[in-house]
Amino acid sequence: MTDHHHSHSPESPATHIESTHLADHATVLARIVYLIFIILPLIGLGAAIVLVWPLGFSWVHLTLLLVMYILTGLGITVGYHRLFTHKSFETSRPMTFIIGVLGSMAAQGPIIEWVAMHRAHHQHSDSDNDPHSPHAHGDGIIGIIRGFFHAHIGWMWNAKVPDLNRYAPDLLKDPVVRTVSKLFPLWVFLGLILPAIIAALITWSWWGLLLGLIWGGLARVFLVHHVTWSINSVCHIWGTRPFDSHDESRNNVICGVLGFGEGWHNNHHAFPTSARHGLRWWEIDTSYLVIRAMAALGLARNIRIPAPERVAAKRRKRP
Predict the structure, then answer these.
(1) What is the pTM assigned to this prediction?
(2) φ and ψ at 282, to 5 degrees?
(3) Through-space distance between the first and last CA atoms of the chain, rounded to whole angstroms
(4) DSSP secondary structure letters along 160-222
(5) Residue 242: which H helix or E strand, with range?
(6) How many other C-beta atoms are found inside a 10 Å radius of the C-beta of residue 268?
(7) What are phi and psi of 50, to 5 degrees?
């Protein structure tokens, strides 16, 4: 029988300490689980490369894997994310086309739908309407795994594309973006077949064609997807929170390096329209360096960066 007399009494210090300890334990457990989920597929890919070297993998295929990873990964980070979603800089129509095609080759969806989904994520970050929050999926190890799976990949099975007229009206009016977005299947096909053709021409064999498709195409798509999904999942639970951003976004150094600067996610949620996500000198942000290089070549302009006083004002005060 419930003792109603004590049911509304304030929490005792001992109970508070115990609950805090349990919360800390759950956080440590979550970090271990997330680290396993990030690292294990990468170890698996590395093991596969070692096992099949040199018959099923060579310097040709390694080069194709890395070059395609960099080009399509930057197509997502510089193009889909910083240019199309947040308008953090401007570029010419030919460059808009090229960056849009490279991002499309990553096979993460047409530009306009991707942008609409991401803008909805920012509007509802870590609330009930966030398409891919890892939070509120239950307690304990099962809840942690369920939340990770949902944020990492599971959300795509039942994701409803937001209203494009509401979330991406600017892109719907842009003929270049609209054309690239409409031809998305073509760009995905080219992203798979080009490394296959290059490998075939270098090795002059059908075997080279197949391996080019596998490593420069399929394995590369997996790698870029895994790193991008890790921003959605890992960077909303594990890392530092130097800024007030009204959500659970975090800066994670592993995702920061692998994701070309996208892992400085708390910085990004605090200053969404900033072309620079790594706001401190040691926060490596390859995407921003590419944007700066584009500007030096006259290919990027009106690069948006928060003023130092805004950055200082939003920085969380240490207790």
Answers:
(1) 0.82
(2) -90, -5
(3) 42
(4) PPP-HHHH-HHHHT-HHHHHHHHTHHHHHHHHHHHHHHHHHHHHTSHHHHHHHIIIIIIIHHH
(5) none
(6) 28
(7) -60, -40
Q: Which two tokens stand for residue 109?
A: 């969806």
Compute the distance between CA of residue 11 and CA of residue 153 in angstroms, rounded to an integer: 38
Residue 99's identity, in one-letter code, is I
* Separation CA 125–CA 41 (nearest Å): 27
Angle, in degrees to the nearest 10, between helices 59-74 and 93-104: 120
Q: Which two three-digit tokens encode residue 229?
A: 């999904």
Our CA dihedral for 248, 250, 254, 256, rounded to 10 degrees, sits at: 120
57-63 contact pairs (CB < 8 A, 24+): 57/211, 57/215, 58/211, 60/199, 60/202, 60/203, 60/208, 60/212, 61/199, 61/211, 61/212, 61/214, 61/215, 61/216, 62/215
CA-nearest of 306, 237, 230 to 262 is 230
Q: Nearest CA to 209 among 47, 104, 64? A: 64
d(CA 249, CA 126) in angstroms, rounded, equals: 8
Radius of gyration over every alpha carbon of the chain, rounded to an integer in angstroms: 22
Q: What angle do CA 257, 262, 265 make, to 5 degrees?
A: 115
Q: What is the pLDDT along the chain (319 residues), one digit of tens a residue?
A: 444 444 344 444 443 333 333 334 445 665 666 566 666 667 777 787 787 777 778 889 999 999 999 999 999 999 999 999 999 999 999 999 999 999 999 998 899 999 998 888 776 544 455 454 554 555 556 666 666 665 555 545 566 677 889 889 999 999 999 999 999 999 999 999 999 999 999 999 998 899 999 999 999 998 998 888 888 777 877 789 999 877 778 899 989 999 999 999 999 999 999 999 999 999 999 999 999 999 999 999 999 999 999 999 999 876 4
Q: Which residues of 160-169 are buried (b: 16+ CB within 10 A; e: fewer)?
A: eebeeeebbe
